[in-house]
């Protein structure tokens, strides 16, 4: 997949929604989104699936077009990276906090945000809920977005991550992301 195509896809609405998806706030300087899921799996199973990103992420929202080219190293300083077919790689985010099975936090600007003067903090918080788990995803982005307003970007980024969260839920509960 060409990089231009990836940017168009990443800015497109993300597909299937998540009941708890929400743009929490938008300002001239950034935005924050939050999404919450209930999963039929123990927190350690959810965490292990989360870091096995190549099995559930939608390859349409990658630079290579192939989810199996993605990996997360769940340790401080670890990489959420992508291997490119022609050689080379993409650093999507850096792990800044990894505490299995309750928290994975990363710092980075995902997708088309990479080419802007922004930074972001993404957190996946996992908690026990009866016989299953809750998973709260939050992503706060701030900085300079060039000619694009954060009011335009926030719902598109929220939609993309809602689609990813739905795929993760399906992968955790059914063993496949679709």
What report would you give on this structure?
This protein has 178 residues and is an alpha+beta fold. The chain has one domain: START domain (Alpha-D-Glucose-1,6-Bisphosphate, Chain A, domain 4). It is built from three helices and eight strands; from the N terminus they run αββαββββββα. An eight-stranded antiparallel β-sheet has the order 1-2-8-7-6-5-4-3, with helices on one face. The longest helix has 25 residues. The N terminus is likely disordered.
Features:
8 strands; 37% strand; 3 helices; globular; 24% helix; 178 residues; 8-stranded antiparallel sheet; Alpha-D-Glucose-1,6-Bisphosphate, Chain A, domain 4; alpha+beta
Taken from the alpha-carbon principal axes, the silhouette is globular
**Beta fraction:** 35-45%
Beta strands, count: 8
Q: How widely separated are the two ends?
A: 21 Å
Strand order of the largest sheet: 1-2-8-7-6-5-4-3
Oligomer: single chain
> Which architecture name does CATH use?
2-Layer Sandwich
What is the name of the CATH superfamily?
A: START domain
- How does the major sheet shape up? 8 strands, antiparallel
**N-to-C SSE string, H for helix and E for strand:** HEEHEEEEEEH
Class derived from helix and strand content:
alpha+beta
- Total domain count: 1
Using the CA coordinates, give the radius of gyration. Answer: 15 Å
Q: Within the CATH hierarchy, at the fold level, what is the topology?
A: Alpha-D-Glucose-1,6-Bisphosphate, Chain A, domain 4
**Low-confidence region ranges:** 1-18
Estimate the mean pLDDT confidence: 90
Please estimate the helix content. Answer: 10-25%
Number of helices: 3
CATH class: Alpha Beta
């Amino acid at each position: 997949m060409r990089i231009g195509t990836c940017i168009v896809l990443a800015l497109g609405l993300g597909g299937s929604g998540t009941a708890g998806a929400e743009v929490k706030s938008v300002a001239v300087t950034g935005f924050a989104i939050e999404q919450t899921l209930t999963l039929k799996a123990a927190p350690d199973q959810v965490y292990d699936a989360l870091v096995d990103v190549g099995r559930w992420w939608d390859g349409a929202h990658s630079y290579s077009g192939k989810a199996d080219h993605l990996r997360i190293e769940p340790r401080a300083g670890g990489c959420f990276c992508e291997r490119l077919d022609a050689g080379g790689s993409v650093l999507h985010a850096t792990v800044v906090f990894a505490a299995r099975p309750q928290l994975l936090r990363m710092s980075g600007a995902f997708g088309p945000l990479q080419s802007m003067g922004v930074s972001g903090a993404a957190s996946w918080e996992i908690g026990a809920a009866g016989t299953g788990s809750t998973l709260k995803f939050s992503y706060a982005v701030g900085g300079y977005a060039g000619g694009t307003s954060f009011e335009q970007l926030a719902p598109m980024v929220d939609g993309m991550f809602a689609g990813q969260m739905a795929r993760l839920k399906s992968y955790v509960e059914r063993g496949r992301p679709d």
